[in-house]
Amino acid sequence: MYSVSQIAFAFFCGLFAKNRTKYGLALLVALSIAVMHNPALATDGTQLIGIGPIQKGTGGAGVASARDATWAILNPASIIALGKRVDGSLEVFAPDRFMDSEGPSGLANSAAGRSEDDSVFYIPTIGMICDCEIGTFGMGIYGINGMGVDYNSSRTLPGAAGGFDRRTEYAVAKAAFSYAYPVSDSFTLGGALNLDYARLRTDSLNAAFAQTAGQNRWDDAFGMGF
What we know:
This protein has 2 domains: 1-40; 42-225, Porin, CATH 2.40.160. The chain is built from 5 helices and 10 strands, in the order ααββααβββββαβββ. It has helices at 4-16, 22-35, 52-57, 71-74, 157-162, and strands spanning 43-44, 47-48, 85-93, 97-100, 114-117, 121-131, 136-150, 167-184, 187-202, 219-225.
């Protein structure tokens, strides 16, 4: 995966060389990516940088110009130009995670060394847009946030003794119901009702050096807004 700046750089190089031979263009683009080869992050903290492949491809940019049904959550007014459609995707998210157990003697489980987790997360997205007699309606369900680790060893000695302090899982999904109203040919009003569902479980160490009260059981929360 490459960053937006890398893709943009390669794109503008391609525009510059559009009158060259196809071999020269291919070489120029390849050299552009090779020079600017730092990988991009798929998340900003635990927040995905984009929902679905098109938003991902723009690095979460392009808010004003709708491209698919995910814009129902990104910019409700923009869906006026989409017409009738249904879009779905499934993102396979497999970040490398590791932890080095280091810290004060008697607390850190230094014998654990480096713990790693390469488990895979599947993030579904589905949305639809339909034209109304006046305006456009859109709706969808989107995975927008999440993280998780499940290490073989605890990072702390109290955790190692009790078999805890090694797992965390967090996820947030959003359902959006959007409407765009055309005030004129050049001006559209849009709004959305957003319903959020979040869940978290962990067996982390608490301030009393014991397992958190949740004991890796799921805790759920709901919210809504406009």
